[in-house]
Specification:
150 residues, alpha/beta, 7-stranded mixed β-sheet, 5 helices, 27% helix
Length: 150
């Protein structure tokens, strides 16, 4: 089942990220998709802050992967927008075996290597400050997360 969430402000998006963070578990994979400026990085920043990460979280567009290890649980933030077909040489799949949380921006670009169980969040711009977020859980754990936060 898909879940819809209407964010009418950045604060709404932050609150959703914080609520999902409160339900985190080891090995959690969150895949974010949506056009530029739709709120993907804002979501990651709020998730990281709620997880106790004090570093300035920015989109890892040119680094591809940023690791944050000082929070309650390790966070691996990926932006695969510029990866193209070279993602196999980067070792992205190795991160799926780690115990932290993985959040991937532009995840649809690497859909063929994503784990079967994950949470997809699709961001759609519906107005200047309004976003429609569609949460698509793949697996029982992710279904439980969506049920808990929405």
């Amino acid at each position: 089942m898909d879940y819809k969430f209407t964010s009418r402000s950045e604060d709404d998006t932050r609150e959703l990220a914080e609520n999902i963070e409160s339900e985190k578990f080891e090995g959690m994979v969150i895949c974010l998709n949506g056009e530029l400026g739709s709120g993907k990085t804002l979501f990651v920043k709020a998730f990281a802050k709620s997880n106790g990460i004090e570093d300035d979280v920015t989109s890892p567009t040119f680094n591809i992967i940023k690791e944050y290890t000082e929070g309650e649980m390790e966070l691996y933030h990926m932006d695969v927008y510029r990866v193209e077909d070279n993602y196999e040489s980067i070792g992205i799949e190795d991160y799926f075996k780690r115990n932290g949380v993985i959040i991937i921006e532009w995840a649809d670009l690497i859909s063929d290597i994503l784990p079967e169980e994950r949470l997809d969040i699709n961001f759609q711009i519906a107005g200047e400050n309004t976003r429609i977020l569609t949460l698509v859980p793949h697996g029982e754990k992710y279904e439980e997360v969506c049920s808990s936060v929405l």
